[in-house]
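Hi V.,

Quick status before I head out on leave. The structure for the redesign project is tokenized and pasted below; the design run finished overnight.
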């Protein structure tokens, strides 16, 4: 199973891998290895209090919150995680990254890890991964890619260029319960250097001693590559899906979702009542209802209510987010059963609900 993942994503055959419950866990595993491989002392024995100098990790302001949580859990402290600004495309601004690293180095801080995202949660933006790989190499940093969503775009020949550079990661986290179309819970972490991976987690108490035969036989023990000992057989469903459908079909479905996202974005831009709030590089569409003369604060409240009504009336289940202070209806399209007509209904209903909500607008709220 792990071998298939490596092959599908262009990772070297010698890399190690672990199936975990979700992208958050996969990120935690990746950053745990990053920490022990780069801090330059025996962090498992000494803890971070032994650090001879402050350390820094770098990700964009759009990186997923699970990475911040991983940094916290690993005792590296929130302040060591730099949130690098993004450009209009919501991808990391490389100039800001280089400047921040230079300032840290000048202040005696050790850069240890750069985190790139393949498809951010908010907008589906992908950081310039090949450039991040270069920068990581220049500064002897670990390169972690959070591909929770975007990694499996690599299965589609049309989408593959978007995530180019991902295969240069030292660790790559990705979900199979997102664009792998698997039921919850299954995700994966791949680590380029298996020794670094095992050195981060392996513990061999007497009751877990390897044997040459019997139930304790076999060299590969997944407990030595992650946090869990007792584990479910997550690989089975993924293996079966790949056997039945094949990776090409998953890639075709991912592309179908992206095509639907583009269609939805087009419907939004065609409607005088709706406004697209971010570019649509993959399968996430962020938009809002708008109404002439209604200010941003009121539009935010109105769109929040509109979202809840969409959900409560059983019409559609977008989520919500805020982009540059504007509340957005966020559609992350990942269902292999979605059809173009679904998005036509969504747009029609957003306009209907939005118009009903603005019809009752008190005059004092008008700009
Ligand atoms: C970019 C990104 N990283 C990490 C995660 C966390 O994944 P999970 O919900 O599987 O823990 C998500 C979830 O949406 C995500 O979009």
């Amino acid at each position: 199973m792990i071998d298939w993942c490596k092959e599908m994503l262009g990772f070297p055959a010698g890399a190690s891998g672990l199936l975990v419950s979700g992208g958050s866990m996969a990120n935690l595993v990746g950053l745990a290895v990053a920490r022990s491989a780069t801090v330059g002392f025996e962090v498992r024995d000494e803890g971070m209090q032994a650090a001879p100098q402050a350390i820094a990790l770098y990700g964009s302001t759009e990186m997923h919150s699970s990475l911040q949580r991983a940094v916290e859990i690993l005792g590296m402290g929130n302040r060591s995680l730099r949130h690098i600004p993004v450009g209009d495309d919501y991808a990391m601004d490389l100039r800001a990254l280089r400047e921040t690293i230079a300032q840290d180095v000048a202040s005696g801080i050790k850069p240890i890890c750069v985190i790139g995202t393949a498809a951010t949660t908010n907008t589906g933006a992908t950081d310039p991964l090949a450039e991040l790989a270069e920068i990581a190499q220049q500064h002897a940093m670990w390169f972690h890619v959070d591909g929770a969503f975007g990694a499996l775009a690599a299965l589609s020949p049309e989408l593959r260029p978007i995530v180019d550079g991902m295969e240069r990661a030292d660790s790559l986290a990705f979900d199979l319960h997102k664009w792998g179309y698997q039921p919850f819970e299954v995700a994966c972490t791949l680590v380029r250097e298996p020794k670094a991976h095992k050195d981060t987690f392996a513990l061999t108490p007497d009751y877990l001693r390897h044997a040459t035969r019997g139930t304790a036989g076999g060299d590969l023990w997944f407990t030595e590559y992650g946090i869990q000992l007792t584990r479910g057989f997550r690989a089975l469903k993924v293996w079966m899906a790949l056997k039945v459908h094949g990776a090409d079909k998953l890639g075709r479905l991912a592309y179908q979702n992206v095509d639907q996202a583009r269609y939805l974005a087009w419907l939004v831009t065609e409607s005088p009542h709706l406004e697209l709030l971010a570019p649509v590089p993959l399968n996430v569409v962020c938009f809002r209802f708008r109404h002439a003369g209604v200010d941003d604060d009121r539009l935010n409240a109105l769109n929040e209510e509109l979202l809840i009504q969409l959900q409560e009336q059983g019409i559609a289940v977008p989520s919500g987010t805020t982009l540059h202070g504007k509340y957005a209806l966020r559609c992350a399209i990942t269902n292999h059963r979605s059809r173009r007509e679904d998005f036509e209904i969504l747009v029609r209903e957003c306009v209907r609900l939005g118009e009903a909500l603005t019809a009752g607008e008190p005059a004092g709220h008008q700009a």
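Above is the designed sequence. The two ends are 58 Å apart (CA to CA).

G. will cover questions while I'm gone.

Best,
W.
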